Structure formats: structure tokens, C-alpha cells
Amino acid sequence: MKIGEASERLGISISNIRFYEKKGLIDPVRDKESKYRDYTEEDLDEIKQIIVLRKMGMSIESITDIQNGDISVEQALTKQLEALDEEEAKIYASKSLCQKAISDGNKSMEEMVSLFDYVADEEKQGVQFSPAEEFLDNLATAFNYDHVVATLPWGYMIYTNPVLNKAGKTAWVMYLIFLPLFCAFVGLIAKPKDSTGITKYAILFVWLLIVFFQIAKAVKSVKIVKTKQD
After folding, report:
1. N or C: which end of the chain has fewer CB within 10 A?
2. Cα-Cα-Cα-Cα dihedral of 215, 161, 167, 137, to 10°?
3. pLDDT, position 225
């Protein structure tokens, strides 16, 4: 069957299926005549397995390790359960912090400063709160960071290295937001000395439109994630 039919049967987008293929999780055979991918029932079962594991919050890297035989399903599930327990503890700590802020009557941004020492003391005692860099992850996801990295020959190395992965996300967000904004700022304060000045402004304007569109996607993505969590 073609990818469109597979998408309908599985209830996921075509881009998701292609992403799984780029990550090496599935390998559908191409039709010799049409050159299109031909998805079999076995391929659909593999994708169903991936979907179930992803619903558990399991990373692409862990699923790859399972398929490669580097780790058993039981080991991966145990590891994921530990990660979820840790995440649950962070959520509980964050909820408790919200409740404390409300009970203490902290209703403004300025009053949040009074909780900084409390958070620092709690973290010294081993309490873990939601990471401050979570928004960076949401932005990178909204800007199709995963899809871009998946197309790179060294993409797997970036994904499996926490330092490179975070650096890649930061660089991608910087490239799509701060670089064009900086160029736009320079373009606005600079006085064009040639006849191409209007063209430069037009290019910067289009670039800014793209950036704001991406930011809107990011905000929408964050809202969707929060809605699903609620």
C-alpha cells in the first residue's frame, strides 16, 4: 500500500512515517516500477510498535537500541519507567511550588523573586523541578529540528550525544530567530547607500515574516503539549 493509505490506517501523519524511515526505524520496500514505497502489513506492525513505545515517552534512540538488539524490551521499559518516575517527581515539585506561590500570595513577577531562595534550598536537598530549558526543546521541535537533523549523515551522533543535541537545538533556534532579528535590526539602523537598499529591506521583511510565523507555530505547539498534559 502507498504511504497515504498507511497514514490513514495508522492515524498518524505522512511526515511522521517518513521521519521514522529517515531515522532507520522502518525500511519499506520500493516498488520496482513506480519507485514508490510499498508498505506491507509487517511494516504497519513495526510502525504500531513504534507508536506504542513513543506513547510511553520513549526516545527514538531507545527504540533504535531495541531494534539493534543493544537492549531488550524489558530493559528499555524499566529504564523508561525510571525516567517517567523522575519526571513525575519534577512535576509534583513544580505543582507544589505553584501551590506555595498561591498560598503565600505571590501574584506578580516581582514577588516570584522571594521564592528563588526556597527553590535553591529545595534543590540542594535533592528536589528536582521542571527544567528551565524546556521551552528551548519546544521551540526546536516546532521549528522541525528533528526532521532537519534526521537528514544529516551525522544526525544519529548528534541525537545520541546530549551535549551535541542541546548545542544543535540552540544553534537551530538562534539561526531561525536571533540571526534574522539581528540582521533586521542592522538593516533598519543602516542607511542604504546604493539603489539596492529597498531590495535589502524587502528581503529582511520576508525573513521576519517567516520568523514570526515559526514563533506562532512554536507557541501553538507549546499550547497543544500543555493541553495534552492537562
Report:
1. C
2. 20
3. 40
